[in-house]
UniProtKB/TrEMBL annotation:
Primary localisation category: cytoplasm
Cofactor(s) the protein needs: Mg(2+)
Family, per entry: Belongs to the PanB family.
Record's signal peptide: none
Organism: Paenibacillus borealis
Residues that bind 3-methyl-2-oxobutanoate: D45, S46, D84, K114
Coiled-coil stretches noted in the UniProt entry, renumbered to this chain: none
Statement: the UniProt record of this protein carries the keyword Cytoplasm: yes
This protein's encoding gene: panB
Protein's name in the database: 3-methyl-2-oxobutanoate hydroxymethyltransferase
Cofactor note as given: Binds 1 Mg(2+) ion per subunit.
């Protein structure tokens, strides 16, 4: 099976076939995501929250992203992989931006990168696309700018905000982005953006009319996550409880000596008993 590519993704939008995207951060999560048939894997800098235990995505580095992207690649050889450019790695010189992108593509072996922002990053998007690397945009709630936004707020609530988001989406399309993530955008505005551009929109907390959906691995599976319940998340399995129960059974059996049992041990032949304890 071949991974999807950006030409097919655009055709899926035209044909009305939704794109399914899930984050993954390491070999086992990538293996499971690929086996389950996701269209796209995002190595999100949300790994800062759900894997590394930070409060925000700001501390995540290019080194972190390279390390995790390489692990994901080993687990999902046949899935299109997008790696997040971390905080402040695409706002300086084009040289610096391209250096980070090159590391994600060469060392991480991603197929594409994702960048947060609107008009202010369009020059960086064009430079990366000109280097032959597909770029996924990301507008609406952009967690790397949480300190400017003043919290994790819903975007696109009024007419002015709606127009700003539509303008950003059009600018990203013109800059060469192959798609756009819409995060925490009102359903009406996400629908309007999806109509206004010919590249696929992939929503998270952006309603029913996006061209695809993305969720965070740990949210979908209730795998230990530092967050409270989120309205836009649907939990499809409670893996966190299964893991906790499994580990506590292991601890209990070690303590009461029911593990290891006879079937788990290796035995020597009789000569050993003779030599150890005498005949
Ligand atoms: O880092 C991430 O997981 C993301 C998605 C929420 C789109 O950027
Ligand atoms: Na991200």
């Amino acid at each position: 099976k071949h991974p999807l590519n950006i030409i097919k993704m655009k055709k899926m939008k035209t044909d009305g076939v939704p794109l399914s995207m899930l984050t993954a951060y390491d070999y086992p999560s990538a293996l499971l995501a690929e086996e389950a048939g996701v269209d796209l894997i995002l190595v999100g800098d949300s790994l800062g929250n759900v894997v590394l235990g930070y409060d925000t995505t700001l501390p995540v580095t290019i080194d972190d992203m390279v390390y995790h992207t390489r692990s994901v690649k080993r687990g999902a050889q046949n899935t299109f992989i997008i790696a997040d450019m971390p905080f402040m790695t695409y706002h300086g010189s084009v040289d610096e931006t391209l250096r980070g992108v090159r590391r994600l593509m060469q060392e991480g072996q991603a197929h594409a990168v994702k960048m947060e922002g609107g008009l202010e990053i369009c020059a960086a998007v064009s430079a990366v696309v000109a280097a032959g690397v597909p770029v996924l945009g990301h507008i609406g709630l952009t967690p790397q700018s949480v300190n400017m936004i003043g919290g994790y707020r819903i975007q696109g609530k009024d007419a002015k905000d709606a127009q700003r988001l539509i303008d950003e989406a059009k600018a990203l399309e013109a800059a060469g982005a192959f798609g756009i993530v819409l995060e925490l955008v009102t359903e009406e505005v996400a629908a309007a953006i999806s109509k206004a551009v010919s590249i696929p929109t992939i929503g998270i907390g952006a309603g029913r009319y996006c061209d695809g959906q993305v969720l965070v691995f740990h949210d979908v599976l209730r795998y230990a996550s530092p967050y409270r319940e989120k309205r836009f998340v649907k939990t499809y399995a409670d893996v966190g409880s299964l893991i906790r129960e499994g580990i506590s059974s292991y601890v209990r059996e070690v303590k009461d000596r029911s593990f290891p049992a006879e079937e788990h041990v290796f035995n020597a032949d009789e000569t050993v008993l003779e030599s150890l304890y005498g005949g």
